C-alpha cells in the first residue's frame, strides 16, 4: 500500500511540476474536451466501479460469524442500560447463559460474536483497541465480531450519548489466553463460594434481591446488574470506582451522588453497620 | 363644576390615601355580629361562586365517584367537618352559627354544585370564610371520597350516618382516656377487628408491628400524606402510637377468598416473583411477604385491592411518602402500567398469609 501510495504521490507531483514548468501553449479545444471526458469521467467511473466490486467481494470476510462452524461458538450478549452493561455469555453448546455485568472477558485468538441490544435508549458498544463501534438500538440485535490478538485489559466506553451519566458508562474488556478464559468461565458458571457472612442476610432482608441477582442465593432480581461475582470485577458502577470497601459502601448509600441518574435508590437510611456488612460480603464474592 | 382629566388624576391619587386613612383610624368594623353590608355580601359571594366555577374547569372528574370509600370520608367528616357543617341528628353549636359567613348546612347546598366544583372547594377551601383546604394537596383520592360522601349526605338518615361515622364506637365523649379513647377513634374506620370498614381502608390486623408504628410516625410527621390519617394521628398522644401498632398487629389475619380471574393473577404472580426487568420493575416478593424481610416492609397479602391500587398509583405519581424506606416504592412503582396495578392489587388481595410466606 505504501508503494502504491508513493507512486500516486510522485505522479501527481510530477504532473504539477510539469504543468508549472511547461510552456503555456493552448491546446486544441477538441483534444481538451476529449481529455476531460476520458480523464475526468470515463476512466475514474470505471476504476471506482472495479474497486466497488472488489470491496463487495471482500465484504463477507468482515462477518465471519455468518459462516457456521468457523467461530468457536461463544456468543456474548451485551445489553446497554442506563448506565451500565448487562453481559451474558452464551456457551457454544447452548447451555445456561452465564450472567455478569460491566466486565467482558474474551479468549485471545478466537473470534467472538457479540449480540448487542438495548432496553432503553441508543447506546454504542466500543472497545477501541479491538474494533469499531456498533450501536445498541432498542428492539434490535446488532452483531459484531471481534478478535483479540493480544492478551490485555482494554477499556470500553459507551460511544453514543445516552443520558446524564453517559460519560460514566464504561466497561473493562479483558482478553485472556483461551485456557485461562475457559477456567474463568467455568468458575463463573457456579455461585461464588463467598461465605455466608451477615452481609448476605442483610442484603436479602432489605430486598436488594428484588433488583439484583446473586447466584446461589434467593436474590434473583433481573433489574440491576448481576452481582454474583462482583468482588472479582475491578470496578463498580460500570467503571466509576475501584472495587474497594469504601467505594462499595458509598455506592450503596447514595448511588445518585456517584452516578447521577442511576436507577438505584439511595440506601443511606440503612444503619452504617448494615451497609458495611453488605459491602464486605459483596466484595468477597469472587 | 367642570371635571377635567386633571381633577380625575388628583382624585385617583387621593382615593387610596383616603381609604388607607379610613382603615387606619378603624372606620371598617371587622366584628362578625352585625354581618356584612348587603353589597359586600353579594360581591364576596359572587366572587366565590365565580372563582369556584372557573377553577373547577381544570378538575378532571373520575368516571365514577368512589362510593366504596364513603365510610372513611364519613369518619373524617365527623371529626373535621361536622363541627361547622353539622351532620344528620347532630345540631351545630350556637358559636358556629355566629360565624361570618355562617357555614352552610350542606344538606340543602350540595346539590347546587357540580362534582368538580365540590372537589375544588373541598381540596382548596375558600378564602376569608374559615373553610380550610384539605390538609394535603397530594391526596385527590381522599377528596373524591369526600365528594362521594357529600353526594349521599342529603339523603342520609341519622342511623346510617352514625353507622358510617362511628361504627360500633360511641361518639367520643371525653369520658374515656388514653389508649382506650385512641383505639375507639381508630376503630371508627379500621373496625374493632382491624380489618377495615371499607375497601379503601387497609387491613391492620396482623400487619407487621414495625411497619404500623413507623407509618403512624410518618403520618404524624407529615411524611406520609393524608388528610384523614394526618388529623387522626396528630390527635393521639405520641407515646400511644407504639401501643396502637402493637394492638392492631396482634389481631388475627383476614380470611381471603380466591379470585376467579386466573389470567390476571398469573400475570401479577410473574411480576411479584420476577418483576419486569425490561421496565425496571423489581420483584414485589423481594421485599414483601417473607418473615425474614425487614419488618418495616408491610405485609400485602389480604389487603383490599382498592387500597393496594390507590397506594401504587400514589407511589407512581410520587405523591406517596411514608417511612424512610418509602422512596424504594416510588422507584419500584414508577413504570407500572394501569393493568399491572390492577393485576397486582387483585393478586395480593386474594393471597392468603400462608401463601405469602412461602419461598418466592
Shape of chain A: elongated
Number of helices of chain B: 17
Terminal Cα span of chain A: 48 Å
Overall spatial form of chain B: elongated
Largest sheet of chain A, in brief, is:
5 strands, mixed
- Biggest β-sheet description of chain B: none
**The CATH class of the largest domain in chain A:** Mainly Beta
Helix-and-strand structural type of chain A: alpha+beta
Descriptive labels:
heterodimer, A: 286 residues, alpha+beta, Immunoglobulin-like, 2 domains, 5-stranded mixed sheet, 3-stranded mixed sheet, 7 helices, 12 strands, elongated, B: 360 residues, mainly alpha, Cytochrome Bc1 Complex, Chain D, domain 2, 3 domains, 17 helices
Brief synopsis:
The complex is a heterodimer of chains A (286) and B (360). Chain A has seven helices and twelve strands.
Describe the protein's architecture and organization.
- The complex is a heterodimer of chains A (286) and B (360).
- Chain A has 286 residues and is α+β, with helices and mostly antiparallel strands.
- Chain A has 2 domains: 65-188, Cupredoxins -  blue copper proteins (Immunoglobulin-like), CATH 2.60.40.420; 198-283, Cupredoxins -  blue copper proteins (Immunoglobulin-like).
- Chain A has 7 helices and 12 strands.
- Chain B folds into 3 domains: 46-57 and 67-163, Cytochrome Bc1 Complex, Chain D, domain 2 (Orthogonal Bundle), CATH 1.10.760; 178-249, Orthogonal Bundle (Cytochrome Bc1 Complex, Chain D, domain 2), CATH 1.10.760.10; 262-356, Orthogonal Bundle (Cytochrome Bc1 Complex, Chain D, domain 2), CATH 1.10.760.
- Chain B contains 17 helices and no strands.
- The termini of chain B are far apart.
- The chains are: A alpha+beta (286), B mainly alpha (360).
- At the A-B interface, helix 4 of A face helix 15 of B.
Amino acid at each position: 500500500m505504501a508503494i502504491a501510495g508513493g507512486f500516486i504521490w510522485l505522479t501527481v507531483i510530477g504532473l504539477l511540476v510539469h504543468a508549472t514548468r511547461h510552456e503555456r501553449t493552448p491546446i486544441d479545444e477538441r483534444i481538451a474536451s476529449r481529455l476531460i471526458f476520458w480523464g475526468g469521467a470515463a476512466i475514474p467511473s470505471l476504476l471506482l466501479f472495479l474497486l466497488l466490486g472488489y470491496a463487495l467481494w471482500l465484504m463477507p470476510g468482515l462477518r465471519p460469524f455468518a459462516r457456521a462452524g468457523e467461530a468457536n461458538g461463544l456468543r456474548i450478549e451485551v445489553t446497554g442500560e442506563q448506565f451500565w452493561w448487562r453481559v451474558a455469555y452464551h456457551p457454544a453448546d447452548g447451555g445456561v447463559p452465564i450472567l455478569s455485568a460491566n466486565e467482558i472477558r474474551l479468549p485471545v485468538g478466537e473470534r467472538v460474536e457479540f449480540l448487542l441490544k438495548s432496553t432503553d435508549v441508543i447506546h454504542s458498544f466500543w472497545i477501541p483497541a479491538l474494533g469499531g463501534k456498533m450501536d445498541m438500538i432498542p428492539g434490535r440485535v446488532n452483531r459484531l465480531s471481534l478478535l483479540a490478538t493480544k492478551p490485555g485489559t482494554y477499556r470500553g466506553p459507551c460511544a453514543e450519548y445516552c443520558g446524564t451519566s453517559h460519560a460514566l458508562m464504561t466497561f473493562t474488556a479483558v482478553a485472556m489466553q483461551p485456557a485461562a478464559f475457559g477456567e474463568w468461565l467455568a468458575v463463573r458458571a457456579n455461585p461464588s463460594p463467598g461465605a455466608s457472612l451477615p452481609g448476605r442476610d442483610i442484603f436479602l432482608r432489605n430486598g436488594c434481591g428484588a433488583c439484583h441477582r446473586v447466584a446461589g442465593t434467593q436474590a434473583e432480581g433481573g433489574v440491576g446488574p448481576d452481582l454474583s461475582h462482583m468482588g472479582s470485577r475491578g470496578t463498580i458502577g460500570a467503571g466509576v470506582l475501584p472495587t474497594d470497601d469504601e467505594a462499595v459502601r458509598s455506592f450503596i448509600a447514595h448511588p445518585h451522588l456517584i452516578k447521577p441518574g442511576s436507577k438505584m435508590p439511595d440506601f443511606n437510611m440503612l444503619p452504617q453497620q448494615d451497609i458495611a456488612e453488605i459491602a464486605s460480603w459483596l466484595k468477597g464474592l469472587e | 363644576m367642570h371635571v377635567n382629566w386633571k381633577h380625575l388624576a388628583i382624585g385617583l391619587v387621593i382615593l387610596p390615601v383616603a381609604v388607607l386613612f379610613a382603615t387606619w383610624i378603624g372606620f371598617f368594623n371587622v366584628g362578625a355580629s352585625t354581618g356584612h353590608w348587603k353589597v359586600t355580601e353579594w360581591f364576596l359571594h359572587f366572587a366565590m361562586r365565580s372563582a369556584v366555577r372557573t377553577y373547577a374547569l381544570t378538575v378532571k372528574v373520575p368516571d365514577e365517584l368512589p362510593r366504596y370509600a364513603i365510610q372513611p370520608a364519613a369518619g373524617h367528616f365527623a371529626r373535621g367537618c361536622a363541627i361547622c357543617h353539622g351532620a344528620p341528628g347532630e345540631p351545630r353549636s350556637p358559636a358556629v352559627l355566629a360565624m361570618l359567613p355562617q357555614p352552610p348546612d350542606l344538606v340543602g347546598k350540595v346539590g347546587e354544585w357540580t362534582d368538580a366544583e365540590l372537589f375544588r372547594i373541598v381540596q382548596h377551601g375558600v378564602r376569608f370564610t374559615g373553610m380550610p383546604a384539605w390538609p394535603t394537596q397530594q391526596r385527590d383520592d381522599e377528596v373524591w371520597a369526600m365528594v362521594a360522601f357529600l353526594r349521599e349526605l342529603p339523603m342520609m338518615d341519622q342511623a346510617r350516618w352514625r353507622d358510617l361515622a362511628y361504627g360500633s364506637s360511641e361518639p367520643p365523649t371525653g369520658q374515656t382516656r388514653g389508649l382506650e379513647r385512641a383505639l375507639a377513634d381508630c376503630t371508627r374506620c379500621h373496625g374493632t377487628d382491624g380489618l377495615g370498614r371499607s375497601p379503601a381502608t387497609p387491613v391492620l390486623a396482623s400487619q407487621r408491628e414495625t411497619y404500623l408504628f413507623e407509618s403512624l410516625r410518618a403520618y404524624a410527621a407529615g411524611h406520609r400524606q393524608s388528610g384523614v390519617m394526618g388529623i387522626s394521628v396528630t390527635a393521639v398522644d405520641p407515646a400511644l402510637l407504639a401501643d396502637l401498632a402493637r394492638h392492631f398487629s396482634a389481631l388475627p389475619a383476614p380470611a381471603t377468598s380466591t379470585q376467579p380471574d386466573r389470567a390476571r393473577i398469573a400475570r401479577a404472580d410473574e411480576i411479584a416473583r420476577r418483576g419486569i426487568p425490561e421496565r425496571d420493575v423489581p420483584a414485589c416478593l423481594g421485599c414483601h411477604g417473607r418473615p425474614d424481610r425487614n419488618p418495616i416492609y408491610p405485609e400485602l397479602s389480604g389487603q383490599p385491592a382498592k387500597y393496594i391500587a390507590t397506594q401504587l398509583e400514589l407511589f407512581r405519581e410520587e405523591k406517596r411518602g411514608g417511612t424512610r424506606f418509602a422512596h424504594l416504592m416510588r422507584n419500584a412503582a414508577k413504570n407500572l402500567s394501569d393493568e399491572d396495578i390492577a393485576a397486582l392489587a387483585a393478586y395480593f388481595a386474594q393471597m392468603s398469609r400462608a401463601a405469602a410466606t412461602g419461598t418466592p
